[in-house]
Write a structure and sequence with these properties.
Length: 120
Amino acid sequence: MKIFKLFLIIFFIFPINSLKADNEILKNKITKNLRCLICQGQSVYDSDSEFANSLKIVVDSKIDEGLSEKQIYSYFQSKYGEWILYDPLFNRNTYFLWLLPLLIFFVGGAIIFNKFIKKP
């Protein structure tokens, strides 16, 4: 009977710890992608400002409510705008941001091709 009780205790403790670890990993991932509006160029994860600490608490509460990562990002976007995300979503407002590196790559490749490879 003691072994059965011990087994039940272990069975109920380990899934709870696993769930907490998963929540902590998700919280760290989300806070690393949120920009601190007070600090210059720091993520909420790296910042120790009051604003960042309050956002960490909000992220914790949203995770506890059962919201997904996308839902949490959309909540913060609706509240603070798209600037709060370090990795903005691909939409009509950010086409230029996402396609500019490809444009630079192709223009640079064309210049190199014309200068060095295609000689008269």
